[in-house]
Amino acid sequence: MPAKLPQVPYGAVYYRKSNPPREDWERDYGIASSDGLNTFRHWFMWSAIERAPGKYDWDECDRQLDLAAENGMATVIAEFTMASPDWLQRKLDFARMRKADGTPMASQLSPSVAVGGFGESLGGAGPLTLNAPEVHEAVMGFLTEMTTRYRGHPGLLGYDVNNEVNYSPEYDFSAPTAAAFRVWIREKYGSLDALAKVWHRYSYAEWDDIMPPQQIQPYAECLDWLKFREDNFYGHVQDKIDVIRAVDPEATIISHGIAGAVTALAGHGCNDWRAAEQVEIYGYTWIGARKGNQPWRNFFAGDLVRGAARGKPFWHAERQGGPLWMQPQVLGRDKEDARVATPEDIRLWSMASFAAGARGMMNLRYRPLLNGPLFGAFGAYGMDGSRTPRSEMQASVGRWVNAPEQTACMAASPVRGDIGLLMIPEAQRFDLLLSSQGDFKTYQDAMWGAYRAFFDMGVQADWVHDADIEKYDIIYAPYPIMMPAELAARLAKWVEGGGKLISEACPGYFGDDGRVGVQQPNNGLDTVFGVVEDEVEFMPDIGDRIRLSLDDAALRGGGFLQSYTPTSAKVLGYFDGGRVAVTTSPHGKGRTLLVGTHMSAGHFRDLESGDTGATAWFEACVKWAGIKPSVQTGNLAVQGRLQQGGDKQFLWLINPTAEAQQISVLIDGAPLVVREALWGDAAANQVPARDALVLAL
Predict the structure, then answer these.
(1) What is the pLDDT of residue 1?
(2) Where do the Beta-galactosidase trimerisation domain residues begin and end (predicted)?
């Protein structure tokens, strides 16, 4: 029988062929299991296993599964068909992924492992495209061999499919992918005449005349290319999953991304919602050394992936446990900014992730690599596998989350947030094309700025895919510049039914296929907001010069500017010079609040430069919507998360600061009543520095 899912899967990535040394394996497993680690993930790399056609070397992989069973641990096999054998690359050279100029993707060693066969992305089979039938057949054949071998092993928990689910936007313009694109286009449009009406290409005589667009411009053909790349990629991921499930229906199917839906959905395919939909357990890589160590960032990835998981269990699948040396993400940053992870960092990152709802955790290295550019990085244990203060802290957290006393707490999950942040994938894809020439980051900054604003105010903001708006009463749309007609209609119906919609400038300005609506707001949203457009300005490079006032607050905007002429809305604020900037309007049983600039992008810009930002705007939004946070800590330095499991409630209080913080907590406006302190001392009325307080209510 396969291994059982632990209460909280907790462990690390261990085996990567070149590391750790074989002579240490038995000792390492013994230390790990005694330290409360119950799960290892291993990289089973195709290029290191099928060393010649049909000749497999499973010896080291077998040993990992056997050691897991002997030590009472569970194994997640990370299938690494994105490291393809060099002999296959030679044989199928025509199937190499290519850049637009025809440059083929080279075979190389990964920065994360000294093993060959990798390409420059995670989206294919090494440098080979799965759109070539020969490559596809070889990949599925290897997965069949692997799954057949380990099916039912007592050390096996499941399979992690397609590590960090993403691909390179610079590739793939290969002939096999161009052929797959033509099939996709034909299925979407049906005829060349229908295609011509949208793409404005009128001289396609055959479907074979169609080639992937090589320009990056806000045209329908480029939007189709971006959508095809995502559909094509996740189709291949699903093929892998189907092969594994066909052979071993008892194995758990897992995957993890990089919590990249805000920054890399359009270009790299980091659609966390779509990835989570395919599997039983989803997760995310998030590393303070690479992403930054600010308090809001410690929660951001967990909150994003919780929204994407839509109720499924999710893990912090790769959490930092040690330093990161000499990599571009850390250069110029302070030593204390996650460059050298401390035991307190590990505790804080772990508890923040659990507070956000993660119910599994893996260090991305059990012990550091001994070679390559990431030598010495990330491991909680020493270079020789010995215990360290970091590993001791890791062990203390692991023992606690898996103790029987925490069963009910670990079965609970965060309550729904106070407000939803609207994710519109089409808006991100369009903005990638629209903003590419100026290299503007308005979409990213707007999404982060809104999340950060509510976070800093102690308001729990959930990430809400546009397909899930009906689950929330209050929605904030940070940068809704592109919106399909179908979504605009659903938003209108949602507001009419009682929803409260807060939107920034240019809602749905670009409609289906990226076409500008002649009536603005577009697609009937003028009725929802009770305004029509007065003037519009697309000058994000000088968006910091946008000034407006709301009540007694002088504010600075960002991104674009759109002023309004009210039809039924009430004016609340003006741009400098007198144009209407802020309006509110009833619509059916609901209400809307509209601001004619991208306040969240400006807020993020200002905070990053050390200014105060547009906090007054977000405070006005909270007041307008009547939001009363479910958790009020009495101290904005402390983040509180309420979790519910059946009739039991648990409160997580996280202090990311270097000093103890006093608290005075209200739950739904009522004084806190504590049944039991599970982590920390409730009687102290404070949360220790870089620590947590977990309470059963």
Answers:
(1) 67
(2) 443-607
Q: Residue holding tokens 């209400």? A: 591
User: Do β-strands 419-423 and 474-477 pair in parallel, antiparallel, or remain unpaired?
Assistant: parallel
* Residue that finishes a domain, picked among 570, 605, 625: 625
- List, in order, residues 6 or more apart from 462 with CB less than 8 Å away: 303, 306, 307, 416, 417, 419, 420, 421, 472
pLDDT digits (tens, 9 = 90+) for 98-113: 999 999 999 999 999 9
DSSP letter for 106, please.
Answer: P
How many Cα atoms occupy the beta-carbon half-sphere of 384 within 13 Å? 1
Rounded Cα gap, residues 173 and 165, in angstroms = 19
Determine which helix (DSSP H) or strand (DSSP E) holds 414, and give its type and residue range: strand 413-414
Residue type present at position 254 = I
* Boundary-marking domain end, from 625, 655, 688: 625
Give the C-alpha separation, 466 to 483, whole Å: 10
Instruction: Phi first, then psi: give them for residue 336, nearest 5 degrees.
Output: -75, -10
> Does residue 97 contact residue 119 with C-beta atoms inside 8 Å?
yes
Pair (620, 635) in one structural domain: no
Total domains, the chain = 3
Domain that holds residue 594: 419-625
- Residues facing 666 on adjacent strands: 632, 671
Residue 331 lies in a domain: yes
Summarize the chain as % helix, strand, coil (round to 5). Answer: 35, 25, 40
Q: What is the pLDDT of residues 251-285, one digit of tens each?
A: 999 999 999 999 999 999 999 999 999 999 999 99
Q: What is the DSSP string of 443-479?
A: HHHHHHHHHHHHHHTT--EEEEEGGGGGG-SEEEES-
CA distances from 292 to 151, 339, 374, 614 (A): 40, 9, 18, 22
In a domain, 71, yes or no: yes
> Which residues have CB under 8 Å from 552's CB, separation 6+?
none
Does 657 lie in the same domain as 558? no
Q: Which one-letter amino acid corresponds to residue 202?
A: Y
Return the structure tokens found at 511. 């409609």
556 close to 539: Cβ distance less than 8 angstroms: no
